[in-house]
Amino acid sequence: GLVPVSDLLKAAEAGGYAVGAFNCNNMEIVQAIAQAAEAEKAPVIMQASQGAIKYAGIEYITAMANTAAAMVSVPVALHLDHGTSFEQVMRCIRSGFSSVMIDGSKHPLDENIALTRQVIAAARPVGVSVEAELGKIGGTEDDISVSNADAFFTDPEEARRFVQETAVDSLAIAIGTAHGRYKGVPKLDFARLEKIRSLVQIPIVLHGSSGVPGEAIQEAIRLGVRKVNIDTNIREAFVDRCREVIAANPDEIDPRKILGPAREAAVELIREKIRLFGSSGKA
Ligand code: G3H
Ligand code: 13P
Ligand code: ZN
Ligand code: NA
Predict the structure, then answer these.
(1) Which CATH superfamily groups domain 5-277?
(2) Which of 202, 209, 196, 212 is nearest to 155 (CA)?
(3) Rounded to an integer, what distance in angstroms lies between the CA atom of residue 235 and that of residue 162?
(4) Does ligand 1 come within 6 angstroms of the Cβ of 180?
(5) Taking Cα atoms as reference points, which of 7, 3, 11 lies closest to residue 46?
């Protein structure tokens, strides 16, 4: 069955590595994540955003993730990515998600704390782990649009208070990453991460990790990041390969001849990320 993200991050904490959290919204990407994790003997997190759930249907997402987990030997978690309401979180828990994110980062601190506490009160008794977010990560999120100028980094003292008052399982922080593609090379605020880490004892989550140089990802992991979110790089690998196949075979009408190679490209990309995060061989 599906395992809570918190179990995977506890092991990652003990082992000094990070678990990859890969966004999925169709069967081929679910299969690619499972195949890559199995090939690398790595624990893995499949995550679905509210947009992914709207696209595929919540029943399909949970059924595909459960089937994938049953077919591999490695532990698999199914996590809600950027849940924005208590109701959305409840739908996911009822449907079988093993972990949820409640993203209250657009709210004032006290409201974010209250919302996160409400989610934890419902999730923890049924064994579902909870990720929260503090600070504003750049880029576009479901129901959350943050312009670059409006993106605020996580305040370490607020992080300490947030974790103390919520007892949340893991915390997503803003230290210079952004969702989607970067225009230049992102510069991460490692001093801030180090400060947060000294005040907060729980696993840290890095969002917007596509496009961040490998050395920066590894430095972040050295400083306490235990979950690394990747979506955009999977989309690029998948759709670039679709384009290549169609360009080379303009008359191709069999979806399998296009989506099969795209799935293969996603497997290769995800395997590389798993090795970068140090979780290869940890299952
Ligand atoms: O953080 C956002 C993820 O990349 C999901 O994106 O809302 O377009 O599914 P999405
Ligand atoms: P990227 O699309 O930049 O990889 O971000 C993914 C993410 O943070 C999902 O929550
Ligand atoms: Zn994110
Ligand atoms: Na990114």
Answers:
(1) Aldolase class I (3.20.20.70)
(2) 196
(3) 33
(4) no
(5) 3
CA of 23 to the centre of ligand 2 (A): 8
**pTM of this structure:** 0.96
Tell me if residue 65 falls in helix, strand or coil: helix
The ipTM assigned to this model is 0.99
C-alpha distances in Å from residue 276, one per residue of 79, 89, 191, 237, 262: 21, 31, 22, 17, 21
The answer to whether the CB of 79 is under 6 A from ligand 1 is no
Instruction: Write the CB contacts of 237 (distance below 8 Å, at least 6 apart in sequence).
Output: 262, 265, 266, 268, 269
Domain boundaries of the chain, sorted by first residue: 5-277
Please list, in sequence order, all residues whose beta carbon lies within 8 angstroms of the beta carbon of residue 128, skipping any fewer than 6 positions away: 4, 93, 97, 98, 99, 100
Q: Does 142 contact ligand 1 (Cβ within 6 A)?
A: yes
- pLDDT tens-digit series, residues 128-165: 999 999 998 987 544 444 455 445 899 999 999 999 99
Active-site pick, 81, 142, 143, 240: 81
Instruction: Let me know if 240 is a catalytic residue.
Output: no
